[in-house]
Design brief:
Helix content is 4%, strand content 52%. It has 184 residues and is mainly β. The chain has an 8-stranded antiparallel β-barrel. The radius of gyration is 18 Å and the shape is globular. It starts with 10 loop residues before the first strand and ends with a strand.
Length: 184
Amino acid sequence: MATTATPASLITWKLDPAHSGAEFKVRHMMISNVKGSFSGLSGTLVENPADPSRSTVEASIDVATLNTGDAQRDGHLKSADFFDAEKHSSLTFKSTKVEPVGKGDYKVTGDLTLHGITKSVTFAVEGVSEPSKDPWGNLRIGLSASTKINRKDFGLTWNSPLETGGVLVGEDVAISLEVQFIKA
């Protein structure tokens, strides 16, 4: 029998953008990985302590905050060849399933919208911390999450063949998040 939580038994956590970030890495020229990051995260976690599988999370990332350490590459990634930031200014995620897999670990499946295309992806969420009080009296939790996507599934198909064979940009993209939440 499923438990039904009352609004009073749910805990709402707001993502702390100052202490949260998203990173990605993708193969470049078939020889090494290039990393990039986003700093413009926002979101809400509604925790159901009595039944964690009924918890939900929604998050958004501002594409304009993309940074790979190279302004020219950042500009290309924000262009219509990749993220097309003018038309698709954010990446969003909305959970559809939360599955506990161990103490503080979860599989969180949801709808990732990137470049105007929505696909189901599953994040491995690890190390959800116990609530801790910060110096200002706020309760906080933290977690790490990761997944891999194929960028072509989201319409990010630009590439350039190499003289030696292969392509300039790999298809598989590893995504990792380090996130802190503050109790609302």
